[in-house]
Structures are given as structure tokens and as C-alpha cells.
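Example record used in the benchmark description.
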Amino acid sequence: MAYQLDAFEGVVDEGVLTTAMAMTDRWRPLFDRLWAYYRNPLAPMRVMSAAGGTGQMVGSGRWYGQAQEAGLPVRFGPRPVEGLLEPRAVREVVIENDIGWRVQAMVDFVFGKPVLIRSTAEDQAKRKVIESVLDRLWENSGGIALLQDFATLGHVYGHVDLVLRMDDKQLVQAGESLRGSEAGEVVDAILRAVAAMRVEVVEPTRGAPVLDERDYRTMKAYVIRASVDRSSGDKASGFAGWLGDIARAVVGTRSAHAQRESGELLEIITSDAWHVYDDGELVWQSTHALTDGKLPVAHVQNISQPFSYTGVSEVEPLIPLQDELNARLSDRAHRVTMQSFKMYLAKGVEGFEKVAVGPGQVWYTDNMNASVEAFGGDANSPSEHEHIREIREAMDKISGVPPLSGGVVQGRIGNLTSANALRITLMGLLAKTQRKRVAYGRAMEQMCELALTALSNAGVLVTEGNERGVALHWPDPLPEDQDAMIRAAETKLRLGVPSERVLGELGYGSGDMGIA
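Model output (C-alpha cells):
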């Protein structure tokens, strides 16, 4: 498929573009499997005909199958296929998705509470305006829900990207209209202009980087791929819907060869140009000179992986243990099912087969050699329980997420009212949370700096380079002790911290509490 790449000469050519897209195609099977193990979605079973004409259905009788069944041993029957699942002919399965709740717990520790953005500008008045603008930007982009999606995708896939979308023309027009505005109207006009900007999360299944051949850390361009379903009549349904004017222009300029029910939208982003192609046809273009030659993309590695663009996923190292856990739980369920009911072997008792076995029943015979023996029942299996426990402990160590983070107290952790005992027990998870806040927070800071640069170049909110820095104030991920917070607040007041900020940290301030 040919693309009009004249604007990207020297940065992106047909070969480079094909290489970048091929890279995402190679990653896609692994990414799909990682997401399947995290989400463990249900899929309907394929209905089978009656077995042997007896009217009995083959399989466990459940209407659904689960994605993690693909990792069970072959002794459990056919493996899942795409779309529908074949019923298993022999055994029932038990799936306990330990991966899902561990990933969710890590996301809750990183972005479970609002994050406060503070400007580092020296001028107090300008600092308040900058903080209001950035807060509006993130709130318009989705708020805390956007950040949780951001962290979830990064934890599952190992890396994720943020893209700053903006309407350059609308920003420049807003900057021109602000020149004659009075001081009291400026702030409101600036906040309205922020509507032309938006932070978007791009999952690795759609985003493809064009890296520098000499430095894998340098991104020369960024490509976003999206499939479009035109059968509903909206030919631009997969396009960035928030740019309504552009979407209407795309529909209006559709050529005859693109009138298919499905297609692919391709966005190519460099430091000074942004093109959108629909099935190879250029349908929209822009030159974003407002970012001072910086690519409006921030890349995040969930856990850093040396000399690699991709990061380390939280799901991938847990998959072998998850398969082993599911296999052992299914084996135990099969054993319990086979041994749940006691059976009896009667010798020399006439008519035993005609008498129901139950409380108060009396059997009698004149045969002195008669006997009734019971067998079956759920026998204790200590080695089985120990093996399952060791698997769970291995998952705790690899993920760094103990059951206590989900509210499950399995043993003594000292005085439960002591914050120190809780922190020691969750030390691994807290350390990992702090490391991730540095990585994800750096991407948020880059987006804030890019947004302030664009607003300044458009004349909406003029700032100097040293006024565009921000600092993120992260809340404590652990439950808050009100008495300890009050004592800390009293200490801060004695040290000279402004009372407005102290009251805000306690939840009694009138100011904004962060991205919510």
C-alpha cells in the first residue's frame, strides 16, 4: 500500500514504515495472550450433538469456557480455539485468576487516589493558573480513569505510550483572541482553550515506534494503527472522535476505492508533522510547530528492561505458575468429585441392592460370613495442599503482591493497628509502587511540559522554559491513620507550611485535590 510520505522525508520512508508496522504484528500474538491471561474472558462453548444417541451432552455442561484453559495439560481435553470452545469430554476445570487481582492491586497502589500536580514556577499567580490549566487538561482527558487505564495497559503489556493531541489552529485563534482580553477574563479564556488539547493512552497493540538506528531510546516518529468498521455508516468511527471537524472532513473527502466495510486508519506523527491515512489515502494533515520540535509522545516501561524499547510485563512471568495452579486446582476438584460420596461393598447380605442406604436403616442376615465395607470419601492429601500453597507463595514473590494487599490476612503480622507492621509486610509492593510512580510520573510530567510549551507558543498562556516544570504529589497508598495525619499537620504548621495546603491535605481545603 503506497503512502504519501513527502512531509516525512529523511525521517520516515516506505521501508521504515513497513518495518515499524511489522514490529507490532510480531508483538501482537504475545500481547493478545498477555491480555487474555489478565482478563480471562469467557467464550461460549460450541454445542455438540448427543453422544451415542442417548440424549446426553458431551462435556462439563457449562455454556462457557475461559481463556486460561489454553494452558492446561492435554489430559484435560481439547484446547480452546478462536471464538468458540470445544466442550471437554472428560474432566471439569477450575480456573482461579490470580494474575488479574494482582495486577489490579498494583494499579490501585499506583493510581488508586487522586494525584496532585504542582507547578514549580516562582510567580505565585502564574503558578496557580498553570496548575488550573494542567488540572483541566487531565480532567478533560479522563481524569483518574485515564491514569488507571494507563497503568493497567503498562502492567499487562510491559510498556505503554501517552500522546498529546491538539488542534493547532484552534489554539492559535484562542491566543489571538486573548490579546485584547481584560485580566479578569483571561483565566476563563485560557481554560476554555485547553479544550483543544487532550492526552490519549495508546496501547502497544496500536502504537508502533520508529526508533533511531543508533539509539533505541530516541524515537524519530510514532505510528498509530486502528481498524475501522464502516458497516455502521460512520466511516470514521475508529478515528479520533474528539476532533469532530477533522472526522467530518475525512468522511467528506472519501474516495471511491475506500468505500469498503472495513479498513485501516494510520496516523504518522513526527516532531513537526501529523498525517492521517485511510487505506493509504491522505485524509488529514497538520504541522504542529507548537511543541518546539519535540515529538508529542511519552513512552513508559512498566519495569525497565536494559537495551530494549519494550518493558517487563507483570503478567508474563506469572503465566507458567498460573497454569500450574489451575492444573492442580482442577486435579483436586476431579479427585474430590470422584471421592465425595462413600460407596459400600456388601457380601452375604440378601437384598442389599434393594434397600436404600441412609440414616436409621437396618440390615440383617443369618450369614455369619456377611460383611459391609465402606470405601471412597475425600481422603486427606497433605502433599497436594502443600504444593498448591507453594505455588501461591511463588506467585507472591514474583509479583511482589501478597494476599494482604487484597485484604486477606493469612497469618500474624504483629499489631494490626501498627502502620509499621503493615508497611513491613507490604515492603516489596510499596517499593515496586514507588519505582513505578517514578516511571509513570515522568511521562505525566512530559505531557504537562509539552502542553505548556504549546500553549505558550500559541500565545494562550505565555511561560518561560523554567516555568514549565511540575512536581507530582502522590498520596500514601496505605489506609490513612487520621490521628497520625493530624499530628503531622500540626508539625507542618509549626514548620511554616501554609495552612491552606495543610488543610487541603487533610481534605478540608477549598482548592483542588488532584486529578480525580
